[in-house]
Please model this.
Amino acid sequence: MHKIGIVFRSEFLRRVRSKWFVITTVLGPVLLFAMMAIPPVIGIMASGTDEQSVALVDETNVLAAPLAARSDPRLTFVPVDASAYALRAEVEAGRYDGFLVLPDGILEGGVNARYYSVEGGGFTMESRLERALNEVVIDHRLGALNVSPDVRAIMASSTGVRLLKITEEGTAADSAAASSLLGMMMGFVIYIAMIIYGAYVMHGVMEEKQSRVLEIVVSSVRPFELLMGKVLGIGAMGLLQMGVWAAFLLILTLSAGGIAAIFLDPSDFNLPEGVSGEDLAAAADIGLPQMAPELFVWFLLFFLGGYLLYSSLFAAIGSTVEHQQDAQGLMFPVTILIIIPMLFISVIVESPNSTLAIALSMIPFFSPVLMVLRIAVTEVPFWQALLAFLLLCATFVGAIWICGRIYRVGILMYGKKPTLRDLARWLRYQ
Amino acid sequence: MGRLSVENVVKRYGRVLAVDHVSFRAEPGRILGLLGPNGAGKTSTIRMITHITAPDEGRVLYEDQPVGRWSQERLGYLPEERGLYKKLTVGDQLLYLAALKGVPGDVARGRLEAWLTRFDALDWFDRKTGELSKGMQQKVQFIATLLHDPTLLILDEPFGGLDPINAELLREVIWELRDEGRCILFASHRMEQVELLCDDICLISNGRIVLNGTLRDVKRRFGTNTVIIEFDGDARFAAELQSRGSVKVISRSLHRVELRLLDGAAARDVLAYALANVNDLYRFELTEPPLSEIFVESVRAAGHGAPQSIDDGAVRP
Model:
């Protein structure tokens, strides 16, 4: 039995010292940071530093003045007395970023203004224009009805709702969007990990078989011990890699406030000036929301269970073929099993406690992704999570047994690709 | 150090009978040659000796005990199709393989350095095996077989890819191992190596033993019916003798022919004919047949036709 330890040590050290490992472990967080932070930041920056100058064609004859009087340096309204046709030329020539036509009916409501531009408005532009327009239109209509300033103050205020989750300790801040985002990210991480590390195990098995080093090794150690040592060694490497990434993400989260403050402007998010970096980051959805410790523990457990299950399947596949191409056919059903839970992510996020969600998250092949997702998004009863985990364990023990027997025969067979019936026969070989 | 005894062993793969009641013995301090055409069942038999698979009938005994995990640790197996972990260094690889055989780290290290020095390979310790040439890899693989001081050795084509100097070195090492009393099985198709090294031979064809005994006895059994002639001149006389039915040409080159006398032919008649048809004669020898010829004849006589690799698409370990 301790030979598993010898194989484990050798596999783990060999992988961890490889170039692949070092590169992906270091690059991974960099890529992750880039994927998560840079697009929104760039998007905001791009539209934020622009100063848009919009020509106004005011058919209402009352709105132009208040609009022009607004002191927003990023959005200036310039009332002009020209036809739409002439303005087109001006915009195309670049003298204005676009022109806004305010039809007469706006003041009664039910009619939209029209904004013409060459580049297209984009979300930020649309919301800024609407905000500005609504300000002046509502103000005017209220004034026309002789509404007092007190009423106007009431209309301008807004009441927010704070979401709180009921937990065992009492209440904790709840952020629906953030927790579903977290859940989806964790599900995604598990999904990617199963595929990458599973394929890694498969390649390791195929390399040993192709290079024929197996023939030497197999007279010194039982095939099952070789399989387990390899699976565990690569699993440990995977955990190490993810640990490094998690540490990196943690550092990133803690400094998210600082990063956000450098790049962003609070007014983009309807926040007052002088708001703290953390709040800014939270509003911009950069950085990770708080993660409960049990979520982390379950994540780890389901990751391990799912990894053991899928990697033994991949190892069995790798042991039956000699070339990459032959493996594709067998890989297909296994990969499908990993992908299916991803399709149900939005369903589960929407109603995590529905019967469908509960049922799906119990199925051993899906539970690594789906149960973790549910735990992140909602309070899952302990017995449910435990049951799902035990089912997963039972399944991977069974899978390891079956795949171990296939591995044992497959690694020494060369030549014709075995059919499924051959595989069934191998189960009974001594 | 004891003997290896294969007793009436049978092995089937599905419906294919790969090993059909095979029995032989390998004594300590002797080298047994395991011969046979490709697909004859040699590898299947070896896999049962090494306890990678188990026989369906019969048994394999080492030192009068059935083989098992314990014998694996006393056995050094160099398979014919062999490889190495390309990304591991020579040192790491050998230490890993030794650890798998249960050799403590420091002992392994000491033996490793001794063997590497012997094979003039000490500076390869830190090089990745994938970077070594084929001959160098062969030497590393051979060392891997010995690190745990095995008393039973199975060497399948150990000389592949070695130049004559290294082959000589390897032969010396194998003789030493034999003289130390170990039990050695040597499987090969290179008959000249087999003749040089083996004390006993055992020929397997189509899963059955076709020849078994000491090398000397086996050769003598086939009589002295081989003639070797070295000469200057035209080798056509050999073809003419063959067309007359006196001989069969075993091998032929510019200055040398090997002929097997067929029934009734007399060596002196062949000598007379050769003398009459060549310019000069340097050597005429009446001797036992070369092992390759014995091999071919035995396989054919056992009714299995000319040896050929069996390729019906079936998968046979």
In short: Residues 26 and 92 of chain B are 33 Å apart (CA to CA). The longest strand of chain B covers residues 16-26. Chain B has a mean pLDDT of 86. DSSP finds eleven helices and 14 strands in chain B.
